[in-house]
C-alpha cells in the first residue's frame, strides 16, 4: 500500500470520514490511519471519477500528480455543474435555451450570449448554477472515457406525451455509471397527451421512484417551451447540490477540464475550460492536455473579458500552443518554465504513442490486414547490389498476382539500405527488401524505432516466394 485513508482523502479533496464510509460500502473496514492497497485506492478514487495510477506507473508527464493535495479547511461551497440528458426531441435544447433566458429576468442582461460549451446562471437568491451546453450523453460519456468527470447533477428530460424511450434508458445508465444524481424533468406538460403518471410508472423499472411514491428521486413537471416549471427545477438542482456538499478551494492554482476546443483563424487555439478547482487568471502558465501556454485572454459565456474565474466557471481562453481535446485536463503551474517542460513532455509522449498506434505493415501480419481490408497496396522499397538486379527483382515482384492486393514498388536503388530508405518506408507504410545488401548501422536503428519491416535475400526466387506467401497468409513464422 502507498496511501493511508487520510492521505487518500486529501488527494481526493474529501473528508476522511467520507472515505471511511465509501470503504464500508465496499466491504472494507478501515480507520483514518489504515494503509490501503493499490486496488482499493483505485476503486475508491474511481468512485469519484478519478483515475489513480499505481505508484510505479506514475510518470513525469502525468498531469494529475501536479495538483497539490487539498486542505479540507479551505474548501468553500461551489456552484453545481449540470448536464441535461434524455431521448431525442424530448426537449433538452429547448430546456437549455429556456433556462439560459431566465438569466435575463435575473437582471444580468447586457452581454451577448456566447456559446462556449457551458453557461452559468444566477438564480433570484443569488445562487449560481453551471449548465453544460451540449445536451445528451454522448459528450458526457466521451469526456468520462477520457477520465474527466465534470457533471455533478444530471437532468433527465422525459417528454410526458412520449414516456421512457431507448435514449432515456441509455442516459439513466450513463448517469448511474458515473455515480451522478438524477433529477427527472417531466417535460411537455402543456401537451394534451401528457401523461406524467405513465412516466413515473415507467421510470420505477429503472429505480427512479418519485418522492410522491415513496422513493427518493426528485421529479419536476414542466414545459420547457412555455418556460413553466423552470424555477422549480432550478430550486431542486440547488437542493441536490446542497446534499452533495459540492466544494472547492478558490484560493489556489486552477485545474479543470476542457469542454471544447478549436482552431480559430484569427485567435489561434481557442479552448473552453471548466474551472473545477482554484481560480484561473489571465497570465497563468498552463498545461492543457498535451498542449501548454499562458492564458492570454479569457472571456465568459456572455462574451465579456474577465481577468479571473473561480470554481465551476466556464471560460474561453486563448494562448495555447496547440488545440487540446474535449475531456482533456488542465492544470495551472507556478511558473512558465515548468508548464513548458511538462507540456513538451506530454506532446512528445503523444507523438510516440501515435507512432506506435499507426501500425506499420509487416509481412507477418500482411495477410490479416488484407483480409480486414486495411491494406489494398503493398508498398515496397527495393535495394540491391547493382541497379540491374533491383530492376529484375522489381519486375518479378510486379508479376505476383494475389487477389485483393496490389504491389507498388515505390523506390529502387543500388547500395546498402540507408536511414533515408527507412524514413521513406515509414512515411509511406512500406516494407524494405534488400537483395545482396544489408542495412547500415543508422538504418538498423531507424528500422527499429520506426518499426519498419526489412527483409534480406540472396536468391531472387526466395524473395518472390516470401512476398507471395505473405500475401496469401502462408508465411512460415520467423524465428
Ligand atoms: P431535444 O432533441 O431533446 O434537444 O429536443 P428539442 O428541445 O429540440 O425539442 C424537440 C421539439 O419539442 C421541438 O419542436 C420543441 O419545440 C418541442 N418542445 C420542447 N419542449 C416542449 C414543451 O415543453 N412543450 C411542447 N409542446 N413542445 C416542446
Automatic annotation (TrEMBL):
- Report whether GTP-binding shows up as a keyword of the record: yes
**Highest taxon of the lineage:** Bacteria
All residue ranges annotated as the Tr-type G domain in the record = 77-247
- Which of this chain's residues are annotated to bind GTP? 86-93, 133-137, 187-190
Q: Which GO terms describe its cellular component?
A: cytosol
- Gene Ontology MF terms in the entry: GTP binding; GTPase activity; translation initiation factor activity
Principal location class: cytoplasm
UniProt keyword list: Cytoplasm, GTP-binding, Initiation factor, Nucleotide-binding, Protein biosynthesis
Q: Which compartments is it annotated to reside in?
A: Cytoplasm
Function, in words:
One of the essential components for the initiation of protein synthesis. Protects formylmethionyl-tRNA from spontaneous hydrolysis and promotes its binding to the 30S ribosomal subunits. Also involved in the hydrolysis of GTP during the formation of the 70S ribosomal complex.
Instruction: Give the family this protein belongs to, as stated in its UniProt record.
Output: Belongs to the TRAFAC class translation factor GTPase superfamily. Classic translation factor GTPase family. IF-2 subfamily.
This one is known as: Translation initiation factor IF-2
Amino acid at each position: 500500500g502507498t496511501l493511508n485513508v487520510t492521505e487518500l482523502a486529501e488527494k481526493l479533496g474529501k473528508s476522511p470520514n467520507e472515505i471511511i464510509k465509501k470503504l464500508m460500502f465496499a466491504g472494507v473496514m478501515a480507520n483514518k490511519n489504515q494503509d490501503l492497497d493499490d486496488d482499493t485506492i483505485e476503486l475508491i478514487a474511481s468512485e469519484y471519477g478519478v483515475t489513480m495510477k499505481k505508484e510505479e506507473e506514475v510518470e513525469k508527464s502525468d498531469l494529475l500528480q501536479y495538483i497539490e493535495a487539498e486542505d479540507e479547511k479551505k474548501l468553500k461551497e461551489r456552484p453545481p455543474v449540470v448536464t441535461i440528458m434524455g431521448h431525442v426531441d424530448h426537449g433538452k435544447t429547448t430546456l437549455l435555451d429556456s433556462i439560459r433566458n431566465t438569466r435575463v429576468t435575473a437582471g444580468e442582461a447586457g452581454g451577448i450570449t456566447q456559446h462556449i460549451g457551458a453557461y452559468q446562471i444566477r438564480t433570484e437568491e443569488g445562487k449560481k448554477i453551471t449548465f453544460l451546453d451540449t445536451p445528451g450523453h454522448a459528450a458526457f460519456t466521451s469526456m468520462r472515457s477520457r477520465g474527466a468527470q465534470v457533471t455533478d447533477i444530471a437532468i433527465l428530460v422525459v417528454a410526458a406525451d412520449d414516456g421512457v424511450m431507448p435514449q432515456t434508458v441509455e442516459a439513466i445508465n450513463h448517469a448511474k455509471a458515473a455515480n451522478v444524481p438524477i433529477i427527472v424533468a417531466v417535460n411537455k406538460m402543456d401537451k394534451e397527451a401528457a401523461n406524467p403518471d405513465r412516466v413515473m410508472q415507467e421510470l420505477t423499472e429503472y429505480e427512479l421512484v418519485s418522492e410522491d411514491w415513496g422513493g427518493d428521486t426528485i421529479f419536476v413537471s414542466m414545459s420547457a417551451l412555455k418556460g413553466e416549471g423552470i424555477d422549480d427545477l432550478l430550486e431542486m438542482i440547488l437542493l441536490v447540490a446542497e446534499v452533495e456538499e459540492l466544494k472547492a478551494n478558490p484560493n489556489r492554482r486552477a485545474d479543470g477540464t476542457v469542454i471544447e476546443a478549436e482552431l480559430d483563424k484569427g485567435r489561434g487555439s481557442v479552448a473552453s475550460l471548466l474551472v473545477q478547482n482554484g481560480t484561473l487568471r489571465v497570465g497563468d502558465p498552463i498545461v492543457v492536455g498535451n498542449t501548454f501556454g499562458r492564458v492570454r485572454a479569457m472571456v465568459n459565456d456572455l462574451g465579456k473579458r474577465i481577468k479571473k474565474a473561480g470554481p465551476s466557471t466556464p471560460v474561453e481562453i486563448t494562448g495555447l500552443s496547440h488545440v487540446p481535446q474535449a475531456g482533456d485536463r488542465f492544470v495551472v503551474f507556478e511558473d512558465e518554465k515548468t508548464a513548458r517542460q511538462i507540456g513538451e513532455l506530454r506532446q512528445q509522449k503523444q507523438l510516440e504513442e501515435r507512432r506506435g498506434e499507426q501500425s506499420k505493415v509487416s509481412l507477418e501480419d500482411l495477410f490479416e490486414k488484407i483480409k480486414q481490408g486495411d491494406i489494398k497496396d503493398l508498398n515496397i522499397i527495393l535495394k540491391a547490389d547493382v541497379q540491374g538486379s533491383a530492376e529484375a527483382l522489381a519486375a518479378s515482384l510486379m508479376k505476383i498476382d494475389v487477389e485483393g492486393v496490389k504491389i507498388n514498388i515505390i523506390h529502387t536503388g543500388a547500395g546498402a539500405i540507408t536511414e533515408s530508405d527507412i524514413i521513406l518506408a515509414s512515411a509511406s507504410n512500406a516494407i524494405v527488401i534488400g537483395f545482396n545488401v544489408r542495412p547500415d548501422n543508422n538504418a538498423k536503428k531507424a528500422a527499429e524505432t520506426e518499426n519498419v519491416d526489412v527483409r534480406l535475400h540472396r536468391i531472387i526466387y526466395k524473395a518472390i516466394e516470401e512476398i507471395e506467401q505473405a500475401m496469401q497468409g502462408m508465411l512460415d513464422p520467423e524465428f
